[in-house]
Amino acid sequence: MRIAAFQRLALFDAVEQTAEVLARDLAWAEVQGIDLALFPECYLQGHSYNKATAKSRALSLGDIRLNALVGRFASGKTTAIIGFFERRNDALYNSALVAKAGRIVGVYAKAHPLEMGRTPGKDFPVWEEGHWRFGINICADLRYPYTSRRLARKGVGLICNPINLMLRPHKAELWHKPGISSLQICAKHTGCWVMASDVVGSNDDGWVSYGSSAIVDPNGVVVAKAKPHSEDVLVFDLPDRQPERGFAQKAGRIAT
């Protein structure tokens, strides 16, 4: 299976522009034979810790506008994972949608949101792509090992981690290397491949992201790492079939 992690400039309140970038990137991905493409946390509308801002940006899965956008940018064979602020009735979630062939096929909500006013997700769905199974943890979820172990017990071979490390400059510097380390720890603890997609750039408040996109093998070895401070795309070929290793058994041993 060919996977790709896209490191892209963060855009804010520019859904149409982001959709154009997604359409371009996913068209390229299809030409390159990418089976699964990962984009950053809250990439569609732009991240914010402010509840009112997030509420104004949030979209529901049944929103005609959202489905029209997905129909435009995810119309091909490549499966895409895209972070967005999701509205469910009166609740707000930091979520990632899974889209393919022009429609949304699933969603994961961040179990441990750091953003004020976001509701924690409780489900850990798993999807199949070819002969592989994959699941999603969003950013800070990896600080809580049970989130990735839940996926490992369900037999996933790949954990996808949309992240958004746009922080105050001193915090961005502080978290850049630990961000990569958390992927390595997750991989070694679960026996799964792990890939992360981050934003780069800055916002009007002076926050900045270095970009911590990476792909890590089950032994914790970083096999691909994005260039800091720049847009980048990481492409890696996993084996055609998910290894017949006992991911669930390994996770179970760790949990005991």
From TrEMBL:
SUPFAM superfamilies named in the record: Carbon-nitrogen hydrolase
Domain named CN hydrolase: residues: 1-240
Keywords: Hydrolase
Stored Pfam families: CN_hydrolase
Domain of life the protein comes from: Bacteria
InterPro entries: Aliph_Amidase/BUP, C-N_Hydrolase, C-N_Hydrolase_sf
UniProt-recorded Gene Ontology molecular function terms: hydrolase activity, acting on carbon-nitrogen (but not peptide) bonds, in linear amides
Record-given protein name: Predicted amidohydrolase
